Amino acid sequence: xxxxxxxxxxxxxxxxxxLPPDAPTEDAPGRLHISSVVFRIVPHARAMVIPALAxxxxxxxxxxxxxxxxxxxxxxxxxxxxxFQYLTFRYRLRGSELLVTSGLIFKRxxxxxxxRIHSVDLKQGPLHxxxxxxxxxxxxxxxxxxxxxxxxxxxxxxxSLRTSLRRAQGRVAIESGMDTQDAxxxxxxxxxxxxxxxxxxxxxxVSMRGAAVAxxxxxxxxxxxxxxxxxxxxxxxxxxxxxxxxxxxxxxxxVIICVPLLLIVVSIVWTVVRLHAFRLVEVSGNLxxxxxxxxxxxxxxxxxxxxxxxxxxxxxxxxxDRVSxxxxxxSGSAxxxxxxxxxxxxxxxxxxxxxxxxxxxxxxxxxxxEELDWRPLAPGAMRRAxxxxxxxxxxxxxxxxxxxxxxxxxxxxxxxxxxxxxGWLDIKRTAWAVxxxxxxxxxxxxxxSTTVTFFDKVQTVSVxxxxxxxxxxxxxxxVDTAGAGxxxxxxxxxxxxxxxxxxxxxxxxxRAADTELRW
Amino acid sequence: xxxxxDELPITTPDEGQDADEQPLEIDTAPEPEPxxxxxxxxxxxxxxxxxxRIGSLIFTGIVxxxxxxxxxxxxxxxxxxxxxxxxxxxxxxxxxxGLLWLSVVWTRISHNAxxxxxxxDGLEIRRGVMWRKVITVPRSRVQHTDVGQGPLxxxxxxxxxxxxxxxxxxxxxxxxxxxxxxxxxxxxxxxxTGSDDGV
Lengths: 519, 199
Prior knowledge:
The complex is a heterodimer.
Chain A: H1 36-58, H2 75-88, E1 90-94, E2 97-102, E3 108-113, E4 117-124, H3 126-131, E5 133-140, E6 148-154, H4 155-175, E7 189-194, H5 197-207, H6 211-223, H7 226-230, H8 232-239, H9 244-275, E8 279-283, E9 286-291, E10 296-302, E11 308-313, H10 315-320, E12 322-328, H11 342-345, E13 348-352, H12 356-363, H13 381-403, H14 405-429, E14 431-435, E15 438-443, E16 448-454, E17 458-465, H15 467-472, E18 474-481, E19 491-497, H16 498-514
Antiparallel strand pairs in A: 1-2, 2-3, 4-5, 4-10, 5-6, 7-8, 8-9, 9-10, 11-12, 11-16, 12-13, 14-15, 15-16, 17-18, 18-19
Helix pairs in contact in A: 1-2, 5-9, 6-9, 8-9, 13-14
Chain B: E1 42-43, H1 46-77, H2 81-113, E2 115-118, E3 122-127, E4 132-138, E5 144-148, H3 151-155, E6 158-164, E7 172-179, H4 180-190
Antiparallel strand pairs in B: 1-2, 2-3, 3-4, 5-6, 6-7
């Protein structure tokens, strides 16, 4: 337990650097880097400073009132707390588990089975890099947040932690008779993919990830009265002698052109900054991804932890002849954290279509994508889907008709044509395939996706049957896995023939029961 | 799902086994014969039906009471006048009768439609009358199980079994309406031996 007196000198002692490869060792406990005090206090400080600044700005007219400075004193207790956290924080590898302890009064010990660790992720901001430290997140399956966050470790300690984890994982794997392909010590890197600037610019165009940032930016500019200071309207008037109507028209035109342009630019910049020097390598059987210009992220995912793979192609992707490949792992932080650690959300954010087979072969060697035997849906599926689209078209069209007769008369035929086409294409494109190791599902008209999961990753299987299904002898098959993503990237196959659905259901639940769950 | 009104007329009566599921046309007194259970599937505990009914009847009672108070106030203060009153009363009667039908008849239909089985593969649950669903939780995917019991359930010796998996959309599968002993037995049965549990 971490009951060492806090007076112990802070410099970190190197952990487990000289760990004998096979001894079930008790390593000397590792400690955080001294600078972690700073990194631990920063979030508290931020929580205090932002309200303080807000108050400052709000009262900017009348000046800073003295007493508000006292608010900052609230930091002191949390600072003291964090200093003690730093002083008492220990981590060590003991047998097959990683033991993380902290706390002086309320002691907290967390035992993490090494074999359960799914990934060790690194985060390095500019300040981290200047100090030669990194934030380490240890992820296991499930849970909303990382199993353990080591904030922050010296770079050397990170490496030795990784090495000893890898060794321990190999040891555990041998003990429990699992395959030991990733038990090898020698970390030989093999490059799978890098993305150059041109690709990242395309990705920025594809993802428009910066839209939200741009919105915030515009909001801030508005808030701080930058628009008024720029006095756009005044300038236009001064440049050209035009009537007020024309002034408004020009401003509207500027907005219509500038806002999307701004969004695109911000999106590209954002993508380039986040994914700069994107590099996907294989290190002793694991996939490791590194990216980021300012904040450097490293995510390591063992291949066998991949629960679901999907290849997604939006219309913009198609224009550039690119796709995105996403993988899902069972790490629970999928929702919140992996939006930051892009690694697992967009494992291969952008990829030339011709390289898809090669890269998929690297990610999931057990699927031979070209050889998948795609099967169509039930023969009646097309009629049902088209009928459904007609109902949608008519209900939307009639709703529009209520408001405006002309609009309605234009909308109804247009909608009918478009949605019918959509339904037709949708069914035509939707297909499923079963292969040795799992099941694949292909779907989508505008945004197309192909999703694959594996028998040993299937969690639950269900067949649903609505009254309409029943009358047509059809059913819906739903395959749920850990870390199944948004609607487009899950395996839920509608309009299957009833017998097919039943057969798949039996096969999947049987195979899932037979195969051990291997995270 | 394609539960659009467009397709409603197509629901022609089909294979015999579905015949007793059609009576959502409310009036045809639905006496669902207890159809022979598929091999190994077990029905829910009969006491669960009683609990369901009690619950629904309490709800019906509360709704009736509220509506009754509103109608009584109308009679006293004459809010609407008698012309408007007639349809309102008719509506209230329909609603109350509908709720009564739901709590007396429908509870039985849906109770009988739910069956489960535990075998080597794991737990399999079928439920639903109109919208049917059958789900399997493979034995090796069970993370942990809970058996819960509220005061009403305790009075009737019932328990609710919850099976947790690592799945995303169905992280927990609920099986209500087992006797407490049965819930515990299923739970014991699903408990893992060995360490292939993953997490």
